[in-house]
Amino acid sequence: MKRILYIVLAAVTISSFLFSCEPVEDRESLPAVTQTPETLEFSITQNTAKKNEVILKNDDPTVIPYWRYVDGNGNELGHSNKSDDKVNFPFAGKYTIFYTAFVRGGSVEAAPVTVDVPENDDAFFSDPRWAKLTNGQAGKTWVLYMTAPLEFIGNTPSYVNREVSGPGWWPNLTDISWAGLENKDWGEITFDLDGGYNVSVTQTNPALGNTQKTTKVGTFNFSLTAGETNDRISFNGGTEMLHPSEPSYFSPSFSFTNVKIVELTDTSLCFIAIRADGDYLIYHLVPKS
């Protein structure tokens, strides 16, 4: 099963790391970039026995690697900064992989590499969690469950095993007017596997009384873990998980572009969020009727 480390504004983050300790007047003294696209030491190898699998390898320990890969339509599929990584493309088609080497003096980008995947890897989706989330090619649409919209569980990691710790406090909307949650149509989110990891999100503006909707389409990645202890859905192309609150309500470190799933069944999709005061919340979604 593939593991992908998603980098938010990777170029900015890496540049900040490289230059944060350098006084402005000393930046001109940084070493010149000696690498060129032709001299970069890396490899992108397609597994001959299973062409859905591609091995990424950075052979230069003096650089920080950054990989990015897109499908034939240019949709972002993932990012990684591992020196050795393995990516699985389960859908037939052409994929382009970009490699950038970051050094103290700047960065160098290699010529993109295209790989051709001749057939689908049906076994990749054999885990039942894929069907529960997406309903395969047909797709599955989820909406926020506003009868009991969220669950408070306090600032403790015990949510990892709710069968042991038990559920938290399920307030009624009338009890949490301060949270700004309205019993309104918040939109919907649809996942499908029709030739790609497709997601469409129709999000209602979270401001109180606002019913304006915005629809975005993109791709997603579903990272599965043993025991379902750290299953995650990550979003690409400007999409986010459907949510019912203002961004200021959450911790500055929290992002709806990479959410942890705490429950996934045929009838329930629950993800965790971190409130600005550090408490954990669980939002509940149900299939659209």
Notable features of this structure?
289 residues, mainly beta, Immunoglobulin-like, Lipocalin, 5-stranded antiparallel β-sheet, 7% helix
Give the helix/strand layout.
Elements: H1 10-19, E1 42-46, E2 53-58, E3 64-70, E4 76-80, E5 84-88, E6 93-103, E7 106-109, E8 113-117, H2 128-134, E9 140-144, E10 150-152, H3 162-165, E11 187-192, E12 198-204, E13 213-223, E14 232-235, E15 258-264, E16 269-274, E17 280-287
Antiparallel strand pairs: 1-2, 2-5, 3-4, 3-6, 6-7, 6-8, 9-11, 9-17, 10-17, 11-12, 12-13, 13-14, 14-15, 15-16, 16-17
Overview of this protein structure:
The protein has 3 helices and 17 strands. By secondary structure, it is mainly beta. The protein has 2 domains: 115 residues, Immunoglobulin-like, CATH 2.60.40; 160 residues, Lipocalin, CATH 2.40.128. Strand 16 and strand 17 form a beta hairpin.
Helical residues, percent: under 10%
Radius of gyration: 21 Å
CATH class of the largest domain: Mainly Beta
Counted beta strands: 17
Strand order of the largest sheet: 9-11-12-13-14-15-16-17
Taken from the alpha-carbon principal axes, the silhouette is globular
Q: Biggest sheet: strands, sense, closure?
A: 8 strands, antiparallel, barrel
Structural class: mainly beta
> What is the CATH architecture annotation of the largest domain?
Beta Barrel
The CATH topology of the largest domain is: Lipocalin
Uncertain segments of ≥5 residues (pLDDT<50)? 1-25, 157-162
Q: Gap between N and C termini, in Å?
A: 32 Å
Mean pLDDT: 82
Any idea how many domains? 2
- H/E element sequence: HEEEEEEEEHEEHEEEEEEE
Tell me the β content. Answer: 35-45%
